[in-house]
Amino acid sequence: xxxxxxxxxxxxxxLVTSFIDGQWVGDQGGHRIPTFYPGNGQIISELQEADANxxxxxxxxxxxxxxxxxxxxxxxxxxxxxxxxxADAIDANAYELATLETLNAGIVRRDVLGRQVVRAAxxxxxxxxxxxxxxxxxxxxxxxxxxxxxxxxVGVAALIAPWNSPLALASMKVAAAIAYGNTCILxxxxxxxxxxxxxxxxxxxxxxxxxxxxxxxxxxxxxxALVDHSDVDLIAFTxxxxxxxxxxxxxxxxxxxxxxxxxxxSANIIFADADQERALDGALVSIFSNNGQQCLAxxxxxxxxxxFDDFVGRFVERARKIKVGDPLSDETxxxxxASARHREHILSYVDIAQSQGAxxxxxxxxxxxxxxxIEPTAVLAPSNGDRVCQEEIxxxxxxxxxxSDAEDAIRMANESQFGLVGYLWTQNVDKxxxxxxxxxxxxxxxxxxxxxxxxxxxxxxxxxxxxxxxATSSMAFFTEEKTTTIPIADVPLRKFGA
Length: 498
Ligand code: NAD
What we know:
Helix 4 (94-105) packs antiparallel against helix 7 and helix 10 packs across helix 11. The chain has 498 residues and is of the alpha/beta class. It folds into 2 domains: 8-262 and 464-483, 3-Layer(aba) Sandwich (Aldehyde Dehydrogenase, Chain A, domain 1), CATH 3.40.605.10; 267-446, 3-Layer(aba) Sandwich (Aldehyde Dehydrogenase, Chain A, domain 2), CATH 3.40.309.10. A hairpin with a 4-residue loop joins strand 4 (32-37) and strand 5. The protein is globular, with a radius of gyration of 24 Å. The longest helix has 22 residues, at 109-130. Helices cover 39% and strands 20% of the residues. The protein has helices at residues 52-67, 69-72, 76-92, 94-105, 109-130, 166-179, 194-204, 219-227, 241-254, 276-288, 308-321, 340-355, 387-390, 406-414, 429-438, 471-478; strands at 15-16, 19-20, 23-24, 32-37, 42-48, 137-139, 145-153, 156-160, 183-187, 212-214, 234-238, 258-261, 267-270, 300-304, 359-362, 377-380, 397-403, 418-419, 421-425, 443-446, 461-462, 465-466, 479-487. It contains 16 helices and 23 strands. Residues 160-164, 169, 187, 189-190, 218-220, 223-224, 227, 238-240, 243, 246-247, 261-264, 295, 392, 394, 420, 460, 465 line the site of nicotinamide-adenine-dinucleotide (NAD). Nicotinamide-adenine-dinucleotide (NAD) binds next to helix 8 and helix 9.
């Protein structure tokens, strides 16, 4: 295991290829893509893009592994042991995995070590537990027959991951896919292949050959070759809404099940009767965690008018004190934005907001140093209909809007194309229940930010996605139900031609 004293950059491989059939694919030439350390903008590694032939090899490997009954028909106890050993191996390699994630995605390493890697390991332990509690169904309404339902793995899964939190998100999909006896091909984002390349290598020390494969490359090439492959049985995608639509079209053409977890522009509603200090902490956590680059971000902060000025003033005061800097340093609270292009995208919203009459409250500029750093930013938007309140910016950028009462807050929260999560702060129980149920999202957090109960469904409504993760939902997606009917009495049959 690598330790804190080694040079972190030594952990990054010079070239990342695909991992197929239990081994790294050799240097095949072809298109290469540099990957950058967002902390200084330097190239740290190169990725060799998998073309359609290589994707086909990965799918064939996954198919062979799936067709082997030793895998797809494995006893639950043995599968649980594999999942738990993967979790242990992730824990044992936590420092290396966290460092690779930080080098590529720019997330503060202390946070990756304390949260994302812990979660990645837990995802495997979680599914090890869940598969031992799989409920069955038996129907006996008709006294002459017994009808029972069994669940079977679907087959070869294509798993497509975004760049913003590769370990935590991709591990959930890999764990769920293999827990139910599927095999898979993981395609990380071309921006952040490093931590997932290592994770797949670690997993392959434990799983049979071909159960977990990896292909790297851009979405329009490697990604579309994967989702369009005729021998892929299901697709689990996490990423942007527009890409999600493309994935659903590909899935529709080939009639494959697909689950898409997409973008968000979640409302964070602060009522005057909330515990103000807790709501302030929660608002800062929900917009600035993970450098603000998370689908769950509470990026539209709706504040009741009687406390608006005070709350916004205290938020701005705290935002100005946030330590932005080197993501490898334990002192840092917010690291760099993941890419130069994404930093430009985020900063472009300062002009967009101001052109629609918004006031810049704090931040709004790049830091004058190497790397893709920006100041934690907040604007005061005149209306919830403004672009800064409607479009996903995906960075440390909060938009504040004022509301008058609960009905006004509900209206504004629902005035969005997205519906991933929502936050709500009040000490009034009736209000908490009423408002939380009136907002159209997949999940609401009341008086707390971002607590994930993995057993419960997670996913969005509207343009935030289709499908859910969670104990029951993942089982439904990664298995197929089969109904079997057997007579349990002497049931005479009609006798055609007798
Ligand atoms: P993206 O849609 O650009 O890319 C996601 C993945 O899809 C990448 O691996 C990419 O290479 C691949 N891809 C792109 N085009 C493809 C195609 N035509 N066919 C197949 N694959 C293709 O998203 P991103 O910029 O990497 O991630 C940020 C987005 O992800 C944000 O919108 C964020 O809200 C969303 N996200 C959602 C969740 C969630 O759980 N709902 C979690 C994290 C991120």
